[in-house]
Design brief:
about 325 residues; alpha/beta; Purple Acid Phosphatase, chain A, domain 2; seven-stranded mixed sheet; five-stranded mixed sheet; 12 strands; globular
Amino acid sequence: MKDRLAMTKFLKSIALLLFWPMLATSQPLRFGLFGDTPYSAWERAQLPGLMADMAAADPAFVVHAGDFKSGADACSDALFQDRLALFQASRVPLVYVPGDNDWTDCHRRSNGAHDPLERLDRLRALFFAGDQALGQTPMALLRQSAEPAFAVYRENVRWEAGGALFVTLNLPGSDNNFHGVPGQTGPVPEFVARSAANQAWLAQAFAHARDKRLAGVLIVIQANPGFEAARAGRPQPGYDAFLAQLRQETRLFAKPVVLVHGDTHRQHIDQPLTDPASGERLANFTRVETFGWPFFGWVLGTADASDPQVFRFAAKPWQAAAPER
């Protein structure tokens, strides 16, 4: 048995060594984006098919932008294990970003009245162990937890692919847990500490992209950070500092920057980041929102350092038969 385990570990290491150089080069590649799913029994039944559809497009990796359950489902270990098994079955590397339904809102009675911070710790133990993505094909990730000052933030990762940098942040909906559970007054300590970690991780990511002269940066979070509200003078306190940093880094980078998020379930692609002084849109910034319940599908992305636009996207609505009524 020990010999078999050792051989399995050796073969995985070889596969990783073969696969990682392909990602780190500037060769064009494809990737998939999805999130806010599964929200129902029908979506749970359809999701393996959708994931197979993504794999058939030959992506280098796929990213789930958070909310692997609805806001009414229990935050139970059994559900967490089901979603972990689902993600681990992916034929291509899968990177998961935590959503508000997955931890910040677990205090709800319908969710089992859990402690959200305990559920976040459970997510970290299950979904962010080791230094590779989920799924059947190895892909190395750099975790923020490698830095002693941010040892708990295993969910914040980055990797290079297609001549660009891909970055994730634990920045969920429900105003980024700014107020914590009902009865607390924000900003709560968890929000303050995690925001400092996110700020450091994003700054390091852009510094790395500049130093390596990478062609673009793509960031994945779960929350819709409220571009429109901020532009109208009604910024949400949980996202105000993030949007200010994103705006500053996008200006300084002066190459294509993409923010992928879910949360509000309106799949679209636009350019909502503006200069607050002039009102002008930052032309090098693009927002991509994933599909979300009751809409079902994924987004195909490409990264090509030789393309001035670097990133391109195509929506892929699911073509399965509608559920019977």
